[in-house]
Amino acid sequence: MKLKIYLLSLICLLIGTANADLKNDDPVTLVEDITGQIFAKVSDNLEAYKNDEESLKDLVREDLIPLLDIDYAARLILGRAGRGVDQEKIDQFASAMSNLLIDRYSAGLLQFSSKIKLQVLPQRGELNPKMTRVRTRVGLPDGGEAPVDYAFRQTPDGWKAFDVIVEGISYITTYRNQIMPEVQANGIDSVINRLSRGELELTD
Amino acid sequence: MGVLLFSLLLIGCADTQNRHTDPENDPWEGFNRKTYAFNEGLDKVVRPIAVGYDKIMPDPFQRGVGNFFRNLDSTVTIVNQLLQGKFRESGSSLGRFLLNSTIGVLGFFDVASKVGIPYYNEDLGQTLATWGYHDSRYLMLPVFGPSTFRDGVTRYADSFYNPVGYAIHGNNRWGYWIVRGIDLRATFLDSDAAIKEAYDPYVMVRDLWLQNREYQIYDGDPPMVDYDIYLDDLDEQPEATRGQDPGSPMNSPH
């Protein structure tokens, strides 16, 4: 169940951030404003995208990736396993991760986009200027709802999301504890290769 | 219950480990991995039954069974809300329990949710955590699965004021536990593939469980993960100041 919710929530993240034109000064507004708009965009062109998944992937690549801090996420996940690793390798790891995410998001979008109901909760207290959590509730097809949070951080290019937290379970923390030992045991090249082959156990 | 007591005997004394999802918080990893392997063996029998149950039972019925067990647990919630000083919430849970037990036909229908009475989930483990016994080491229980030392002990205590649990103490009514176990197992079927494919399934289960438990303890609003600590790892010297990794026998990945 939880892992299905992950997929749903990752898509919500996409839907919630897939518009680079938006003013990028408040993460809650960022997620909130464009939800309906992007829902409409994907639902309206659902058939076209089904027939041309590449164009959907392009859409994801262009609209989503700039709003995610993939490099930061990669560094968090690698943790101490990234110590002494060339920046080049870290970049490769990050891009293997993002390619994989693009594939998964696109596939998930086709499957779920019409079924998702997303409610963004208001910011509680003062907005931390460096790092914050946007809380949402995702309506599930069976009538229940799942609490899904997004971790955002302030970067020179504005707010960017780097983690998804479903019922308290952080994507970064969970993935990190799998990747770190794997890199330490098999080396980063082996992990990059595995990711490049499209194997990312977490979102299955 | 005998198994649980036995495992607690094996383990012994109390503890104050830092409870976060890093290997340091799993000092009994060796024992836990053995128990995990044992549970996996058991799952070879349980899983097919749960799969069958999931296939045969219509979803509404399955939801009803889930509601039924959840409703029985609300006595545990009510008591522990009182212990945590959440009096208003406790009253609300009592109302929920009464409504669902009557109009909801012994709890099969979650009428309370339909009329907007919120669902809370508390137990003695969470109560102790709010009282200050927050950090407890990870403990994989035979049969029952992931837990902590604190939660393993209190789980047993909680069963005394669960009405069914109370009724069956001293009896050999295994039926309740078996049905409940199968129902519970069925709710996790969706996660099986991901756990099986994980680099280290044991760690995956541990991380999922501990994080979700933290979420429960904080009633859905845990403090944000300190991501900076994750980054610090990158800057540390090879001989880390984090202390030795306790054993982490990564002998069974994949």
Give the topology.
The complex is a heterodimer of chains A (204) and B (254).
Chain A: H1 2-17, H2 27-44, H3 46-51, H4 53-63, H5 70-78, H6 87-112, E1 117-120, E2 131-139, E3 145-155, E4 158-166, E5 169-170, H7 171-186, H8 188-196
Antiparallel strand pairs in A: 1-2, 2-3, 3-4, 4-5
Helix pairs in contact in A: 1-2, 1-6, 4-6, 5-6, 5-7, 6-8, 7-8
Chain B: H1 2-11, H2 29-56, H3 59-83, H4 87-102, H5 111-114, H6 124-131, E1 138-141, E2 145-148, H7 149-158, H8 163-168, H9 174-187, H10 192-197, H11 201-217, H12 227-235
Antiparallel strand pairs in B: 1-2
Helix pairs in contact in B: 2-9, 3-4, 6-7
User: Tally of extended strands of chain B?
Assistant: 2
Whole-number average pLDDT of chain B?
A: 80
Order of helices and strands of chain A: HHHHHHEEEEEHH
Q: End-to-end span of chain B in angstroms?
A: 32 Å
Structural class of chain A: alpha+beta
Number of strands of chain A: 5
| End-to-end distance of chain A | 11 Å
Biggest β-sheet description of chain B:
2 strands, antiparallel
Number of helices of chain A: 8
What is the average of the pLDDT values of chain A? 78
Bulk shape of chain B = globular
- Radius of gyration of chain B from CA coordinates: 20 Å
Backbone structural class of chain B? mainly alpha
Seen as an oligomer or otherwise, the chain set is heterodimer
Shape of chain A: globular
Low-confidence stretches of chain B: 1-21, 237-254
